[in-house]
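Researcher: Please translate sequence to structure tokens.
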Amino acid sequence: MSESIQMKKLFILSIFLTIPLLVFGQKDSVNIWISRIDNSSIEGTCQYSWVIIPKQNKPEINKLIKTGKSIKHKLTKLLTDENKGIIAHYILSNIYGEFSYRILSMDSVQITYNYNGLEFKEMVEKIATDQSNLRKIKEYWIKKK
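Model: Translation complete:
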């Protein structure tokens, strides 16, 4: 065989070997990023107005947001998880560009938010909501195209 045919075969073989690594590698990365986050990965803070943002030591959140709508199914599964439901909703809201939120109440112990339809409370180092709120928001995201 000529050298150019061997080079073409080698090139085609390398493409077939590389594509699955890229596809499955991203899925593995998404699973790793999801495993590293929970509801305490976000916080309310004052930046000219009160906003909810990822904590600085949680770059996984922005990586998941940048991954986009392809991870909706994985995040939707987490919405009724008491430890990851709020953060999954936060990421989905950012992926879909939905940023409607307001503070419902604030005192020295806790802040209660409504973030795109999900009501939750932020206390010292803890963010939580109840299952009925999580189920309601999961239904919303399942219906969302």
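Researcher: Any highlights?
Model: Residues 3-35 form the longest helix (33 residues).
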